[in-house]
Amino acid sequence: MSESTGHSALTPIRGNLGLAVAMGMGRFFYTPALPLMVAALHWSSAPGAWIATLNYVGYFIGTAVIACGWVEPNRFVYRLSLIVSTLGLAAVALTPNLIWQGSIRTIAGIASGLIFVCVTQRIPANSRKPHHGGISYGGVGFGILVSGAIVLAAGSFADWRQLWLICAAVSALFTIIAWTWPIPARIPQNPTPTEAAAPTETDTDDPAEAATRFEANRRRAMAILSTGYFFQGGGYIIIGTYLVVLAGPVFGATAAASTWLIAGIATAASPLTWSAVAARIGTVKALTVCYCLQVFGALLAVFGSSPVVLIIAAALFGFTFIGVVMMTIGVGTQMGVANASAKLTSWYSIGQIVGPAIVAAALSEHIAAAFVASAVALAIAMVLTLVGVLAGNVGR
After folding, report:
1. Which of 148, 204, 325, 328 has the fewest CB atoms nearer than 10 Å to its CB?
2. Is 367 exposed, middle or buried, given 0-12, 13-18 or 19+ CB atoms closer than 10 A?
């Protein structure tokens, strides 16, 4: 059986480690490492914020070039992106020059976006069993867990440069295993809709008219789903960005790594849990429960004056955001939309850029209000996502 189509017990593990390289380390190692860099380099808050924003922009570029059809999410793109993401981690350690740091993090964001789409676009096709998708998506949380563990374990004796090099070494090891994720050399541009998404009942005997109505309905459902995913990206990233700020006075210097470790553990367990829940009660109900918990976590963080509250908020953040991602992308791919993962993730990426920008412009002095804004955005995302799922007639 060929590499591009073969199945084995290691297939979900390869997807897991691919997403760990792309997301947990390639994108998110910056979060626990940033406080040490700020302290060592005497940065103000502005450089870190701008570098993080450039990474979000790069991530959007990586997903957008696939969504627009300019780049195929094929084997070459996937493997090249794994290499670039790993080298990007090591390159951060070369110099603290802000132009260099911003450029490297932008390139790393592009690589992360490409890897994410290459893996997630293929998860439904590569999963013989529902839990296989959960294992693959669990790589995001596993990578976050590894990132936090590196900083907690080595932060007391290694400087910021050495931490990035350690992370790069771990990423290289994961890349070797993730290298053979079964993605074809070329990807079909027009996937066949699944049975759930295919038109089964019409009010006309004209096949052409039925197909036109089906296509219009599918476009409408995808537009609604994408809008909801935009609000999800904006709402979730506010929590991910400012939870550390709330935790600072409570946990002290290790706040970022501690809360990130908690979020990573919850994120790693989340996909398997939500795949099982969705299989049992349906995607609509599972998404509703997942979103409600996410909104509750955002509101709970407003009262984050104690370690227990912050631990619960961090756990809810990690436990819910990847569940929403997994189920929403699953719905998009079931609709039979070409490059559904890339298109949805592009809107998610725009939300990630807009969310922190709005908070920085209007709510920077009112962190509690930022979390309320996050909860509102997530509530809007929930409504739109559920409407999109129902309109697309999938995931019932």
Report:
1. 204
2. middle
- Quote the pLDDT of residue 47: 79
* Tokens matching residue 26: 């390639």
State in Å, rounded, how far the first CA of the chain is from the last one: 34
Q: What is the pLDDT of residues 108-136, one digit of tens each?
A: 999 999 999 988 887 754 455 656 777 88
To the question of pTM greater than 0.85 for the whole model, the response is: no
Task: Say how far apart CA 283 and CA 194 lie, in whole Å.
Answer: 16
Give Dmax over CA atoms of the chain in angstroms: 73
Q: Which two tokens stand for residue 46?
A: 């502005």
Q: Are 24 and 89 in contact (CB under 8 A)?
A: no
The interaxial angle of helices 11-19 and 98-120, nearest 10 deg, is 160
Reported as a single tens digit per residue, the pLDDT across 320-367 is 988 999 899 888 888 877 788 888 989 999 998 888 777 777 765 667
Q: Please count the other Cβ atoms lying within 10 Å of the Cβ belonging to residue 298.
A: 28
DSSP string, 64-124: HHHHTTSS---HHHHHHHHHHHHHHHHHTTT---HHHHHHHHHHHHHHHHHHHHHHHTTHH
C-alpha to C-alpha distances, 335 to 58, 73, 218, nearest whole angstrom: 27, 19, 7
How far, in Å, CA of 212 to CA of 228, rounded? 25
- Please give the single-letter amino acid code of residue 40: A
% of the chain with per-residue pLDDT over 70: 82
Question: Which domains does the chain show, CATH number per domain?
Answer: 1-183 (1.20.1250.20), 212-391 (1.20.1250.20)
Handedness of CA 313, 314, 316, 321 (dihedral sign): positive
**Structure token pair of residue 120:** 């997630």
Question: Which H or E run includes 343?
Answer: helix 340-362
Residue 376 pLDDT class (50, 70, 90 cuts): very high
Residue 186 is given by DSSP the state S
User: Is residue 264 within 8 Å of 318, Cβ to Cβ?
Assistant: yes
Q: How many residues does the chain have?
A: 396
DSSP 23: I
Please tell me what DSSP assigns to residue 181: -
